[in-house]
Amino acid sequence: MKIKQMIIISIATLSILIGVIFNIGNVQASEMTKNSINYTVQENETLQDIANRYGVTINDLENDNGLSSNSVVAGQEITINKNEKASDTAKDSKKKKTNKPKKVTTKKKKVTKKKSTMSKANIRAKKWIAQRESGGNYRARNGIYIGKYQLGSSMLKGNYSAKNQEKTADRYVKSRYGSWVNAKKHWLKFHWY
Question: Is residue 82 domain-shared with residue 15, that is, in the same domain?
Fold first, then answer.
């Protein structure tokens, strides 16, 4: 496999040199073989953009070019090995995408639309604590603390859903402080709740 990659790279280098010698011009993608292209990565371009453009997968590009991650930099030379199967797959996926309507998820809206029995002061204090703890992000992590309210994983019992984080935070604050307003007072004094 390494020998094949070295040969492909050598051919790519040779084709670039021939282009420079014969002043063919600034070619971004030049044919190397019928199914292989040497491509120069452009600024702000991702491996996903290139894969989509040429109908190949990111894994194919990583494997063909010996990349350990899917990050590339402008000016980097990569080889794109196109095969008919990949092109057909790309065409089929484009057809599927245009025929199917997009699914809209409203899971987050259900959590925010749920009417609260808390006072406005408690709601404000709860939002304030969430903002200080995680920036309001349900996926935030800080060591063993997880989610919007930075609760311990043992408190969440492996369920990190937004609904469970809200329910668990309310239970914790009610049992420890009695209200979110009192929890905020504690946070202001000790910088944790």
Answer: yes
User: For 87-116, what is each residue's pLDDT tens digit?
Assistant: 444 445 455 455 555 565 555 555 555 566
| Amino acid at site 109 | K
Distances (CA, A) of 71 to 37, 50, 78, 101, 111: 19, 12, 12, 31, 36
Max Cα separation, the chain?
80
Q: How many helices and strands in the chain, by DSSP H and E?
A: 9, 6
Residue numbers of the domain that contains 154: 107-190
Domain boundary residue, one of 87, 115, 134: 87
How many alpha carbons fall within 13 Å on the CB side of residue 191? 0
The dihedral sign for the CA sequence 62, 65, 96, 42: positive
Q: What is the CATH number of the domain that holds 122?
A: 1.10.530
Tell me the two tokens of residue 159.
């369920």
According to the per-residue pLDDT averaged within each range, which of 62-66, 73-77, 84-88, 164-168 is highest? 164-168
Give domain status of residue 121, yes or no: yes
pLDDT at 147 over 50: yes
CA atoms within 13 A on the CB side of 20: 6
Angle at 51 between CA 49 and CA 64, to 5 degrees: 130
